Amino acid sequence: MPQLDILTFPSQIFWLFVTFFALFLLVRYVIMPRMDQILDARWERQDNNIQRTSELKEEAEILLQRVDSLMEKSRAEANSYIHLCEEKIKRENEAALHLMQSELNEKISKVEKDILRKKEQIIKEFPELVKNLTESFILKVKASDSVVHTTQGKKTRKQDDAE
Hints:
Number of domains: 1
Distance between the termini: 187 Å
Number of helices: 1
Order of helices and strands: H
Structural class: mainly alpha
Oligomer: single chain
Number of strands: 0
Shape: rod-shaped
Strand content: under 5%
């Protein structure tokens, strides 16, 4: 086995140190600075993103507060507008109701006047109406009495003939 030959150990150790030293210098002066730059840029970008995120969060909270205040203001305006509309409608309904009541009262008074006038007219015409009815009744009673007397007279004659 040639690797275990002691005569080759010093050259292997020499090349081990040379290779290790070269790799060390390469890593130390080339690779590590580049990695530091990449990591620094990454940390800086991450810090910037975190800072920007916190700024955007604060802006969002401010906007949310503004939206909430505008919503409250809009609700208050809407409620006041609704209240005004309700009162306007209520006033219009009351005016219409008052107008209808006044028209109804006028019609009622007109009908009452007509009823009173007709009552007075009937009271004036009542004696004549009673007189006409009485005369008519008396004529009918007299006519029916004469018919009854004539029919009773015929019965008596028939009864006399039968006996």
